[in-house]
Fold this protein.
Amino acid sequence: MLHVLVIHGPNLNLLGSREESVYGTTTLDTINGMLVKLGRELGVDLDIRQSNHEGELVTWIQEARNGYHGIIINPAAYTHTSVAIRDALLAVEVPAVEVHLSNIHRREEFRRHSYVAGVTLGQISGFGPIGYLLALRGLYEHLSLRIPNVPAPGS
Ligand code: CA2
């Protein structure tokens, strides 16, 4: 079975309760439930975490070395500031997909630069909660081509 670590960064625990015009009305619990459902369909075990603390996010990324096949991460505001998160993703050599609910490229200038984009498999930005599902499907397809005995999607 594939094991994927899902990491939500700072303030994402507030989803659905504030700034609905930017981030929508879906709560983090609902997003996590959608992910778990898709994970079950694909046969992917998900470990889902959220933290407001940069160091904790770094520690969790480091833990991905121990038995995780991939990472899905929305580093939230740390996307635009954190060399530490970039370095951790680079160090662990576990394929990671970066997710953003909003399209960071059509927002304020400071959000257009991501420190992590250059060390991830790819970035999904602007699809709202569905972006997490796209990330899981993309990661699954990527891993199924590289890891023996992972069924190809749709088989
Ligand atoms: O679009 C995204 O997913 C972001 O990663 C969200 C971050 C933001 O700093 C990035 O530029 C883009 C902010 C997450 C804060 O989420 C909130 C949710 C509800 C209320 C307040 C904040």
Observations:
- The mean pLDDT is 96.
- The longest strand covers residues 2-8.
- The longest helix spans residues 28-42.
